[in-house]
């Protein structure tokens, strides 16, 4: 069933489909996947709506927290849309999914994914595109593509092996292995934070607000350069790093922050 489009929310500049909702916490945008009855499964309309959202972030937004309504973050691709697809239509579905996750990974502001319940297939691909992942203890992860006769199609075969290892990804796809939140956090390092059930969203907003207090150009340099540097050969990576040093440290706000630290007007790094 198609999700009907709605007008632009009062706190967002463009219209979004009703399967998405947006709220603001000062300079942080909270994006909610709003298909709880479908476990937030990824329909084309939901994916295209997220593409619109991440392509239209206002200048006064300094971070995004993404989570799912109901009991799950995202149970993967809406398989109703694959029942009778042609090869060309499958390609198109993959293209829009890859485009979305590229847009998230290289978003102009940091993106935090709050994970709970099912984080399966395309939902795990979506989570992998975020810069930081906060998992609630209810989260569980699976890649059941092998059992369903399909394949990762939204960039997961590129991102996930780099996050958790190629052998782990193949095992999950071939055997249907499911990882619970604790093991995925401590063994796979899939999430950077693990919190109690129901605590993820507030932790995500709190963390996003903390990150937003950084110099904006420094945040931009980090999220744009690190994913590219890890794909480059060492010499190219060192050159990119050198360029980012010049970009970040040439910013007037960065200069002011450095002066404040040297003059003991800024806090030192504290443990914990």
- Uncertain segments are none
**Topology-level CATH name of the largest domain:** 2-enoyl-CoA Hydratase, Chain A, domain 1
Largest sheet report? 6 strands, mixed
Structural class, by secondary structure, is: alpha/beta
The count of DSSP E runs of length 2 or more, i.e. the number of strands, is 9
Gyration radius (Cα, Å) is 19 Å
**What strand line-up does the widest sheet have?**
1-2-3-4-6-9
Mean of pLDDT: 90
Class of the largest domain, according to the CATH hierarchy?
Answer: Alpha Beta
CATH H-level superfamily title of the largest domain: 2-enoyl-CoA Hydratase, Chain A, domain 1
Give the fraction of residues assigned to helices. Answer: 40-55%
Q: How would you sum up this structure, described in words?
A:
With 272 residues, the chain is of the alpha/beta class. It has two domains: 20-212, Alpha-Beta Complex (2-enoyl-CoA Hydratase, Chain A, domain 1); 216-262, Lyase 2-enoyl-coa Hydratase, Chain  A, domain 2. The protein has helices at residues 44-54, 87-105, 122-128, 145-148, 156-164, 166-175, 181-188, 200-212, 216-229, 234-249, 252-262; strands spanning 20-25, 28-33, 63-68, 111-115, 118-120, 132-136, 140-142, 178-180, 193-195. Strands 1-2-3-4-6-9 form a six-stranded mixed sheet, with helices on both faces. The chain has a three-stranded mixed sheet with strand order 5-7-8. Helix 2 (87-105) links the parallel strand 3 and strand 4. Helix 1 (44-54) runs parallel beside helix 2 (87-105), helix 3 (122-128) crosses helix 5 (156-164) and helix 9 runs antiparallel to helix 10 (234-249). The longest helix is centred in the middle third of the chain and has 19 residues, at 87-105. The protein is globular, with a radius of gyration of 19 Å. The relative contact order is 0.11.
């Amino acid at each position: 069933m198609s999700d009907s489009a709605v007008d632009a929310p009062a706190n967002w500049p463009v219209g979004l489909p009703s399967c998405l909702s947006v709220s603001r916490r000062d300079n942080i945008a909270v994006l909610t996947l709003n298909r709880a009855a479908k476990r937030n499964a990824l329909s084309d309309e939901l994916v295209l709506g997220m593409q619109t959202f991440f392509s239209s972030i206002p200048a006064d937004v300094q971070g995004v927290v993404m989570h799912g309504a109901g009991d799950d973050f995202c149970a993967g691709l809406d398989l109703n849309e694959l029942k009778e697809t042609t090869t060309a239509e499958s390609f198109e579905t993959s293209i829009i999914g890859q485009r979305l996750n590229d847009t998230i990974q290289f978003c102009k502001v940091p993106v935090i994914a709050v994970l709970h319940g099912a984080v399966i297939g395309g939902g795990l691909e979506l989570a992998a595109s975020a810069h930081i992942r906060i998992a609630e203890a209810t989260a569980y992860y699976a890649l059941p593509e092998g059992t369903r006769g399909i394949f990762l199609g939204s960039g997961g075969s590129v991102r996930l092996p780099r996050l958790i290892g190629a052998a782990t990804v193949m095992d999950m796809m071939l055997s249907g292995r499911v990882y619970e939140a604790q093991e995925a956090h401590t063994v796979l390092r899939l999430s950077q934070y693990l919190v109690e059930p129901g605590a993820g969203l507030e932790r995500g907003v709190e963390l996003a607000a903390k990150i937003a207090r950084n110099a904006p150009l420094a945040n931009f340099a980090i999220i744009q350069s690190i994913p590219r540097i890890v794909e480059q050969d060492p010499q190219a990576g060192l050159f990119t790093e050198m360029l980012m040093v010049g970009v970040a440290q040439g910013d007037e706000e960065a200069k002011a922050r450095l002066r404040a630290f040297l003059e003991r007007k800024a806090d030192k790094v504290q443990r914990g």
